[in-house]
């Protein structure tokens, strides 16, 4: 078959030689073409990086192409953040002073600041999201002092590679930080509007040093290392942009479902006008509320049901404990709710004031909480009928001082369990090593505490206290607590219960002292012995012959022995053959010499007493058996 391709002329060795001059020329110009292409590509990359600017330009030069008419504050920010900057201070200073405490940097007066202190929110976002800008920003990130942020700062879903610090800035428009990932967010001393930070992941979220939020700060479902709000101020304002909130809750700070690796610090002058919401938050370190004010009258001030923490502190911050930050007591106007809380360490409430109005439900609730360490309640004020509700809680130790007791009827501890109960000792929150070992109270004080429960019979707190005392080796104290519990039981039945309860208490201690019945039985027998002996001497004790003749074959009648006669009458299941043969003559009377005196004795009186002794024998014997077998017990 003939090929259709044209044949190339071959040289002597069969190789191709016709195109060699053309290939030689191409190889000669190839280096020149490559050099030109590289120059064109480099120029294109430089234009891309600067948005049309010169290659290798500064961050300021790059931004100028996209953000004309930069203000003084914006230029300061860009120059500060540039990785090439060699004159970087602590902040990009936007006002006349680099001192954060200078009055010129007070964001309360931001309305008076001139326009040169403004930073567009879009510029900050550009610095966070534009890759080529990111590369030129120093790892210290954005650190601004005394600026006014214009527009909505929206970093939703952005992975910011560096921290953002906006210290003492004014950010009036709502910030959007949903699902943002950032190593540091510091708004210390700033005045902001609402903040939507749902699902944010942040190493440190700092809302310290006089931070003010006019509107809800929502960090629901956030993941943080530390959440700091020392001297932070939060105020609820209705906002249509937030959905899912019930207006009646008035949430000022919402950190429900937060997962904090370290701690959550709402202290040192912290203030919330509205609800602080921490339900189901999981905190690896301490949850602290010292020297904070939580204001939500007639409502829930702190909603922390289901919270989990290594330790919880509510109380006073001593002066000088946190430098210049405010000290003083913890105050709540509204209900503080830790229902179902789980605490690995201790739960300390020391130096706290729970305020509210009569008729409003306010005070402290930790119903069904589980505290592995001690629950400490010292130097606490519960105003206007505030409640202390620990129903169903389980704590390692329950320490409470007498000055911190609620009003009668306001202590709810049904179901509370613990290993130790005592008055507690002064607590220095800044120096845990100074805490002493708890000591048990006297029983009178403990019983006074239990009587602060609402009206009605509440046996479990008595039984729990008795168990704790018994396990500590105080069996007598435990028995006295159980007897006091039975006092409360019978008191609720009115005068009939008082009579029956009094009888059971004095005879067998409600079954907790069954041997007490023996003393009563001996007393009755001895009295009967004496009365029968007197009756015998007075001649009123007569044989029952001929109704009861002597046993068959005997000629003499049995002799009356007063002691055996008393036993025979008293013991219902014993027959000593005394009562059968003798009985007082109700119509007879006689005299008996006692201590050189003459005593008139009537047979009817002896008869009445013996009837009473017979009934006492049946009753006391039955009670003794019931007490020994445990049929009459309160536990």
Descriptive notes:
The protein is an alpha/beta fold and 635 residues long. It folds into four domains: 43-192, no CATH class; 224-426; 456-506; 516-629, no CATH class. It is built from twelve helices and 36 strands. A hairpin with a 2-residue loop joins strand 35 (589-594) and strand 36 (597-602). Helix 10 (516-538) crosses helix 11 (562-570).
Total strands: the figure is 36
Q: What share of the residues does DSSP label as strand, in percent?
A: 15-25%
Number of domains: 4
Question: Helical amount among residues, as a percent range?
Answer: 25-40%
Summarize the main sheet: 30 strands, parallel
Are there runs of 5+ residues with pLDDT below 50, and where?
A: 1-28, 30-55, 425-439
| SS content category | alpha/beta
What is the overall silhouette? Answer: rod-shaped
Radius of gyration, rounded?
Answer: 45 Å
List keywords for this structure.
635 residues; 4 domains; 30-stranded parallel beta sheet; disordered N terminus
Structure summarized in a few sentences:
With 635 residues, this protein is an alpha/beta fold.
Q: In terms of topology, how is this protein built?
A:
Blueprint: H1 20-49, H2 59-66, H3 72-81, E1 92-93, E2 118-120, H4 121-129, H5 131-134, E3 142-145, E4 148-150, E5 164-167, E6 170-171, E7 175-176, E8 181-186, E9 191-192, E10 195-196, E11 201-206, E12 212-214, E13 217-218, E14 223-228, E15 233-235, E16 251-254, E17 259-260, E18 264-265, E19 271-273, E20 275-277, E21 282-288, E22 293-303, E23 308-315, E24 330-337, E25 342-343, E26 347-355, E27 363-365, E28 370-382, E29 387-389, E30 394-400, E31 411-412, E32 420-422, H6 443-450, H7 459-471, H8 475-491, H9 494-508, H10 516-538, E33 541-543, H11 562-570, E34 582-584, E35 589-594, E36 597-602, H12 603-629
Parallel strand pairs: 1-3, 2-4, 3-5, 5-8, 6-9, 7-10, 8-11, 9-12, 10-13, 11-14, 12-15, 13-16, 14-17, 14-18, 15-19, 16-20, 17-21, 18-21, 19-22, 20-22, 21-23, 22-24, 23-25, 23-26, 24-26, 24-27, 25-28, 26-28, 27-29, 28-30, 29-31, 30-32
Antiparallel strand pairs: 33-34, 35-36
């Amino acid at each position: 078959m003939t090929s259709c391709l044209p044949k190339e002329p071959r040289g002597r060795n069969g190789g191709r030689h016709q195109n060699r001059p053309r290939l030689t020329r191409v190889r000669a110009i190839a280096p020149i073409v490559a050099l030109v292409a590289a120059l064109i590509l480099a120029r294109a990359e430089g234009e891309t990086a600067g948005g049309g600017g010169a290659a290798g330009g500064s961050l300021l030069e790059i931004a100028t192409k996209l953000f004309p008419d930069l203000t003084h504050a914006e230029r300061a920010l860009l120059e500060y953040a540039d990785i090439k900057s060699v004159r970087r201070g602590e902040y990009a200073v936007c006002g006349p002073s680099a001192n954060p405490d200078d009055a010129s940097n007070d964001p309360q007066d931001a309305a008076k600041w001139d326009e040169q202190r403004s930073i567009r929110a879009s510029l900050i976002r550009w610095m966070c999201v534009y890759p080529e800008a990111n590369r030129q920003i120093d790892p210290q990130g954005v650190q601004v002092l005394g600026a006014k942020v214009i527009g909505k700062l929206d970093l939703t879903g952005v992975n910011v590679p560096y921290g953002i610090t906006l210290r003492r800035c004014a950010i009036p428009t709502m910030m959007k930080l949903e699902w943002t990932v950032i190593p540091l967010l510091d708004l210390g001393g700033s005045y902001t509007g609402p903040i939507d930070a749902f699902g944010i992941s942040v190493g440190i979220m700092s809302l310290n040093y006089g931070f003010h939020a006019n509107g809800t700060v929502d960090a629901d479902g956030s993941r943080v290392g530390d959440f700091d709000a020392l001297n932070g101020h939060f105020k609820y304002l209705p906002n249509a942009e937030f959905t899912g909130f019930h207006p009646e809750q008035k949430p000022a700070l919402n950190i429900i479902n937060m997962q904090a690796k370290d701690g959550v610090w709402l202290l040192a002058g912290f203030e919330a006008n509205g609800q602080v919401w921490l339900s189901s938050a999981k905190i690896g370190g301490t949850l602290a509320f010292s020297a904070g004010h939580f204001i939500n009258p007639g409502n829930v001030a702190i909603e922390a049901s289901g919270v989990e923490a290594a330790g919880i502190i509510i109380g006073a911050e001593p002066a000088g404990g946190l430098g210049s930050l405010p000290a003083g007591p913890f105050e709540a106007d509204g209900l503080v709710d830790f229902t179902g809380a789980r605490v690995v360490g201790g739960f300390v409430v020391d130096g706290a004031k729970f305020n509210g109005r009569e008729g409003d439900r306010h005070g402290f609730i930790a119903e069904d909480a589980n505290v592995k360490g001690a629950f400490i309640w010292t130097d606490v004020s519960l105003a206007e009928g505030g409640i202390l509700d620990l129903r169903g809680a389980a704590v390692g130790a329950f320490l409470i001082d007498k000055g911190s007791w609620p009003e009668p009827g306001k202590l709810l501890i049904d179901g509370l369990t613990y290993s130790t109960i005592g008055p507690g000792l002064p607590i220095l929150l800044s120096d845990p090593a100074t805490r002493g070992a708890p000591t048990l109270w006297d029983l009178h004080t403990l019983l006074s505490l239990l009587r602060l429960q609402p009206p009605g019979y509440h046996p479990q707190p008595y039984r729990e206290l008795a168990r704790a005392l018994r396990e500590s080796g105080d069996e007598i104290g435990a028995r006295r607590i159980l007897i006091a519990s039975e006092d409360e039981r019978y008191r609720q039945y009115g005068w009939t219960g008082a009579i029956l309860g009094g009888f059971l208490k004095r005879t067998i201690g409600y079954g907790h002292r069954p041997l007490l019945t023996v003393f009563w039985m001996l007393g009755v027998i001895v009295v009967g012995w004496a009365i029968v002996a007197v009756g015998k001497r007075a001649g009123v004790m007569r044989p029952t012959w001929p109704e009861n003749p002597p046993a068959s074959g005997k000629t003499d009648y049995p002799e009356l022995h007063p002691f055996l006669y008393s036993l025979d009458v008293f013991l219902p299941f014993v027959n000593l053959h005394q009562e059968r043969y003798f009985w007082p003559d109700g119509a007879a009377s006689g005299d008996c010499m006692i201590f050189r005196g003459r005593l008139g004795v009537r047979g009817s009186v002896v008869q009445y007493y013996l009837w009473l002794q017979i009934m006492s024998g049946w009753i006391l014997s039955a009670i003794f058996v019931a007490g020994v077998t445990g049929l009459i017990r309160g536990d």
